Amino acid sequence: MRVKTESSAKKKTDILCGFVLEDSNKVLGLPKFDTKISSAISQSLKDMNGKLGKVTIIPIPSKKQAQRILLAGIGKKENLTQDTIRFVSGKIAQKVKELRLKEFSIIAPPTFIYDSISSVSQIIEGTKMSLYKFDKFKTEKVDKIPDLTIIISKSNKISRAIKVAESVAEGVIFTKSIANLPPNECTPTTLSNFAKNISKKNKMKCKIISQPELKKKGFGGITAVGKGSKNEPKLIVIEHNHGPKNQKPIVLVGKAVTFDTGGISLKPGQSMDEMKFDKCGGCTVLGIMKSVSELKLPINVIGIIPSVENMPGGEAYRPGDIIKLYNGKTAEILNTDAEGRLILADALAYGEKQYSPKAIIDFATLTGACIVALGNNVAAVVSNNKHLTKKITDSSKRTTEEIWELPLTQDYMDMIKSDVADIKNVGIGRAAGTITAAAFLKSAIKDTPWVHLDIAGVAWTQGAATKEKPYNPKGATGFGVRLVLDYLQKL
Ligand SMILES: [Zn+2]
Description:
By secondary structure, the protein is of the alpha/beta class. The strands form three sheets. Strands 7, 8, 9, 10, 11, 14, 15, 16 and 18 form a nine-stranded mixed beta sheet that branches. Strand 5, helix 3 and strand 6 form a beta-alpha-beta unit. The protein is elongated. The chain binds zinc ion. The site of zinc ion has 6 residues, from loops.
């Protein structure tokens, strides 16, 4: 999808789309049309009444201007959120695709509704993300993606906002397209190759630590979990060094279990196919690193992705095993399906030791308990630092990728103490599963400000429990990419 701007809505276009507030008798920013067309618009306005997400098309007999006008309802003014235009733009894009048009124009809402940067970002993200379809394995591909013209007065600020929004949306799409790959087509090695490709394209450093070196350097969590699979584990490290040399970096860590059978503590068969999405945290880090480097953000950011396949096999690790993690602590394995915290503990400790970062943010489809607690539209946040949590919360509000903080006090740390090792990889029964998993991660690092995002509920659409959004079709959602890119841009 190519994006351009025009300052006038009077140019010829296949379809001119404008937003309508509820109970309003006009289309925001629409130029004057002759009497016949105007009365058709008035009638349609009455019929649709600006209801949120409602879309109506009016064919135009004249061929000099737009060939069609599309009215898109955005609901009541007092109910507008930072997602309304993104959501409704997605509805518009879907309609345009259904009509098989080659291009479409959207009139940006006036500044009393949104500031122009927010409008442009929401329109581009909403349309671009909604036009993505995972069709890699379909013999028949979908139609070409239409080009977009945004009607808004031009300026350098707007040009930059367009570039940023396009890169953000592409980061999300990149994350989704990898996360949606089936487990036979996406192993730790495949992920390493994706990391190498984006690094080469955008001049980032990329280091892949493979099996013999992982073992030699003491990555006990990653090697234990990876042992049961023929597809060897990898630790992927990407460096974007665009800030001052002595500036401490931000470290992003993402769990990438390319398929999680549960290991010897085998999962039940129902919906087991969805365990291909257990790599979503790592895919999120890849998407963020791609955009960060494309936009040449003037900061230092490190992406670390521990990647394994968790399989039962003759070599697999077992419940009862005691392993030694990268930071030297010993961990008793009580359930081989609680593997994410083991590989993350190694990656977090490595990130802290190697880079002395300013902050660490990790993304992981870590616990089913997170879905029990918060459902499928809000991610859980657990942190050791109020200031960092506040920054992430601010970004969450601006991007409407929703989060909710859970507490992590000493009592929870006590729940992962083991009788026979330093810690154990499950807490006490089903109590506070999301927090005890986070407690395990916290024990891997010293005092670096750290935020953990449990994205088990939000990383992919999970039936009716996931709120329907045009830009989140069935499959991976790319949750966290927009949120953390917002945080990084504000640094
Ligand atoms: Zn698991």
